[in-house]
Amino acid sequence: MPYLTSALAPHNQRHCHQRLRSELPDCAVISVSHRPEVDAYHDRAWRIDG
């Protein structure tokens, strides 16, 4: 998803994640991002620092 959402305005990014959750409620979505606001769309996080 990073390439898909990195060019989106924040409100469009929010809409995209909300749509994924509503259309695919039983699927896992894995995001790789450097944008901290993406945290709001997930209930788990795995952070790799280094």
Description:
This protein is mostly helical and 50 residues long. It has one domain. 38% of the residues lie in helices and 0% in strands. The model has no long low-confidence stretch (mean pLDDT 83).
Query: What best-fitting shape do the alpha-carbon axes yield?
Result: globular
For the sheet with most strands, the description reads:
none
Please bin the fraction of helical residues.
25-40%
Fraction of residues in β-strands: under 5%
Query: How many discrete domains?
Result: 1
H-E order: HH
Number of helical segments with 4 or more residues: 2
pLDDT averaged over residues: 83
What class would the helix/strand composition place it in? Answer: mainly alpha
Rg (C-alpha, Å): 11 Å
N- and C-termini, Cα separation: 22 Å
How many runs of DSSP E, i.e. beta strands?
0
Stretches where pLDDT is under 50 for at least 5 consecutive residues are: none
How is this fold's topology laid out?
Elements: H1 2-6, H2 10-23
Structure summarized in a few sentences:
The chain has helices at residues 2-6, 10-23. The chain has 50 residues and is mostly helical.
